[in-house]
Amino acid sequence: MGPIFRRAERRTERKAPQERLVTLVRKPGCHLCDDAQEVVARVCDDLGVPWEQRDITQDEELHRRYWEQIPVVLVDGAQHTFWRVDEARLRRALGA
Predict the structure, then answer these.
(1) Domain span holding position 51
(2) What is the CATH number of the domain that holds 65?
(3) Mean per-residue pLDDT over the chain, rounded
């Protein structure tokens, strides 16, 4: 399945903000997902990093991999965190 499942890149490699991608894996009606979205949107908007949402109920592979962990945040296709998003940690992961 596309780039969402690729391996994490070496931490020493620096990318420009617009070359990064944060993916929020969520489901409708999930209050933790709503909370995670607020943090992801704030951090990504501040840093100029693109982000996307993926609905776990619409993707069988995401459902299989992450159902018990949602919301899940991926940074450049590698799992960064699940359940709760720590804003400072996400900023560090994105090089801020």
Answers:
(1) 19-93
(2) 3.40.30.10
(3) 89
